[in-house]
Amino acid sequence: MNHPATANGAVALPLPVVAPVTVPVAGRDQAFAVRRIYCVGRNYIEHIREMKEGDERDPPFFFQKPTDAIVTDGRVPYPVLTEDFQFELELVIAIGRTPDPDPTQSLSAVFGYAVGLDMTRRDRQREAFREGRPWEVGKSFDASAPCGPILPVEAGGHVLAGPLTLEVNGRVAQQSELGKMIWNVPEIIVQLSRQYRLMPGDLIYTGTPAGVGAVQVGDRLRGRVAALPELDVTIVAGR
To answer: Do the domain assignments include residue 6?
Structure first.
């Protein structure tokens, strides 16, 4: 195909057409279009202790993943550049509108909740931590944020308490309670809103409890959080 030249003689390539990244909405024939993915670091004391990377008195912090980290088809490819690919089960908050400036109204911004996995190249993350570098290489890569269907607040209410359980090949690997989060859902929204303008389409992964571990190709992970739709994924061979 011949592409037209611009005024200065350069070839004008067509603009790429990129479909929005979406997550299914439970009980609806519609999907949630993802704008940004925020993640909370170190939000369970037991996980801080197992990782030995911070002080229990340190406040949680935030990092981001690209939208194409979302996985909804149940297939998570084993990534390149790692020999220690680990899971982290998390409650996910889906933002439906910009939060009200009044902190007591922060929950009114929530569209719904889901079960998510913050998949991590742990060897690369630890290497970056030792060298004082950003975590992107360990956290922000393709297919690193599997997400289950979002249950709207109008259907299931706010998910502020309840159990978290992750099974790997039928055996329990992570088990805790949402009540053990250092920062709860309203506090996370308030703190993030002080750093960024939260908008409709934003997802917030709220941190993981203790019990994280490595997986291999063929492993099946089943995550449950409170009464939300389950997240069921299998690790497949990557490129």
So the answer is: no
Provide DSSP, 190-219: HHHHHHS---TT-EEE----S--EE--TT-
The CATH number assigned to the domain holding 145 equals 3.90.850.10
Question: What is the rounded CA–CA span in Å between residue 170 and residue 166?
Answer: 9
In-domain check, residue 5:
no
Q: How far apart are CA 191 and CA 179, in angstroms?
A: 18
Residuewise pLDDT in 10s, the chain (239 residues) = 555 555 566 677 888 888 899 999 999 999 999 999 999 987 887 645 655 555 555 666 899 999 999 999 999 999 999 999 999 999 999 999 999 888 889 999 999 999 999 999 999 999 998 898 888 999 999 999 999 999 999 999 999 999 999 999 999 999 999 999 988 999 999 999 999 999 999 999 999 999 999 999 999 999 999 999 999 999 999 97
In angstroms, the CA 220 to CA 169 distance is: 5
State the residue range of the domain holding 188: 22-236
